[in-house]
Amino acid sequence: MPSLGSSFDDKIFHFLSHAVLTGLCFNYFNRIKVSKPILISAIIPICYGITIEWLQSMTSNSRTSDVYDIVSNILGMIFALIILGILKNVKLK
To answer: Model-level pTM?
Structure first.
């Protein structure tokens, strides 16, 4: 993982990866015309992030789970949903 020069680089990457994951989920579910794509696009990254952190605590000796990673994941998802909500309401001409 590249270093950004801060003590919380890991949290920044968690934030960005879950923002991108949320955007990709929304794009996919919106494209296939699923009802409530925003809700589904929120649930999937949250479940994925919590599952990965839980698996790290249960199966790995070299990695640890961190509550702040989950918080970063959720904040990235919320950020993406806010941006998606704004973009959905903007009419491009």
So the answer is: 0.82
